[in-house]
Amino acid sequence: MEEIMFRKNKLVTMAVLCLVMFTILFYGCDPEDPNNGGNGNGGSGNGSTPSDFLVKQVAASWQHTVAIKTDGTLWAWGVNGNGQLGDGTNTNRDVPTQIGTDTNWAFVSAGNYHTLAIKTDGTLWACGHNEAGQLGDGTNTDRNSPTQIGTDTNWAFVSTGRLNTLAIKTNGTLWAWGNNNEGQLGDGTRTSRNVPTQIGIDTTWASVTAGHMHTLAIKTDGTLWAWGRNSYGQLGDGTNTDRNVPTQIGTDTNWASVSTGSYHTLAIKTNGTLWAWGRNNKSQLGDGTTTDRNVPTQIGIDTNWVSVSAGSYHTLAIKTDGTLWAWGSNYNGELGDGTTTDRNVPTQIGIDTNWTSVTAATGGSHTSAIKTDGTLWAWGSNSYGQLGIGTSFDRGTPTQVMLP
């Protein structure tokens, strides 16, 4: 009897919760106002979310978004014309949709039209557009559900670009495949590859990030390396010359993280300083100008930057105090400050101090971020439902995304 009563109470609680969520989502904001936040006042709200909804990682690209929940399940939404969501269809989704039933997804990366993910067993999986072999399965055939790439079980990290993919194995080796027209794979050629191809013989690669057509990576010794297209100085080597092999950028050995946008690059050093270079037509570098830079240029004097993400023409970053900052293009509200005004220096977004990670869509104009409580938030362009909030209206402020 006690078990029956417990189940009844649980069902009642769930029903009430669903009703509250429905009220907030559908009556707490004006659906015709593209800048109105999901809590009904255009603000960020308090982020109160059931534990089942918690997210540990999110990746955003051109017009789709993918995320992994704390329970290890994979979710996707947005445009799906090439099967990049991985749900077995080519139907767009405007709310988070679970991909399969597996509960062992560890990391995911979203390219312009394709998606790559790694499971906890170290296997690599891909879906979506495959015109240039960017999935790495040895074909050029699109896949609309996750397809295992090879049989290796030692994949540690993966980064997807416009039409290419880079990855690192647990042994520190670097691998690349897909489009190579600008030398972005780094194998010394401009030949595209449809299977993972080792780049050099080094075993000291720590991280890699694939931009629109350029690539940046950091080695375990803290040195920074770049290759691919360099028309706007996005490689940072002081020239505008393309490179088809990894080329060291300067001599510093204290690079901690790096992020590539469409044509610009942002990085943080171990001392917490922020650096930027490449295209700056929308002030995406954050140096107060619209002048391109072909060498790393320090942004401000702050020494408390902890993470940064470069989007198409906008940039987002988080400081050690948990505050969120944005700059660059704001045409679709992708900065999240409630306006559509571009910003040429880092501008604080709201007053919250509990942001833990942020991803600015490379090739796109939307942003997704996670707070320390595991809640997911999104803003910016939403024409294909890439925000995951059940509509196609843009949002100009952080709006909570409710995963089922």
Features:
globular, 4-stranded antiparallel beta sheet, mainly beta, 404 residues
Task: Please describe what this structure looks like.
There is one protein chain. The protein has 404 residues and is mainly beta. The protein is built from one helix and 28 strands. The chain has one helix at residues 2-27, and strands at 55-60, 64-69, 74-78, 93-98, 105-110, 114-119, 124-128, 143-148, 155-160, 164-169, 174-178, 193-198, 205-210, 214-219, 224-228, 243-248, 255-260, 264-269, 274-278, 293-298, 305-310, 314-319, 324-328, 343-348, 355-360, 366-371, 376-380, 395-401. A four-stranded antiparallel sheet has the order 1-2-3-4, with no helix packed on it. The chain is globular, with a radius of gyration of 21 Å. Mean pLDDT is 90; it is low at 1-48.
As a percent range, the share of strand residues is 35-45%
The string of secondary-structure elements, in order, is HEEEEEEEEEEEEEEEEEEEEEEEEEEEE
Q: Going across the major beta sheet, what is the strand order?
A: 1-2-3-4
The helix content is: under 10%
Low-confidence stretches: 1-48
Helical element count? 1
Q: What is the tally of beta strands? A: 28
Oligomerization category of the chains in this entry: single chain
The SS-based structural class is: mainly beta
What's this model, at a glance?
The chain is built from 1 helix and 28 strands. The chain has 404 residues and is mainly beta. The chain has a 4-stranded antiparallel sheet with strand order 1-2-3-4, with no helix packed on it. A 4-stranded antiparallel sheet has the order 5-6-7-8, with no helix packed on it. The protein has a 4-stranded antiparallel sheet with strand order 9-10-11-12, with no helix packed on it.
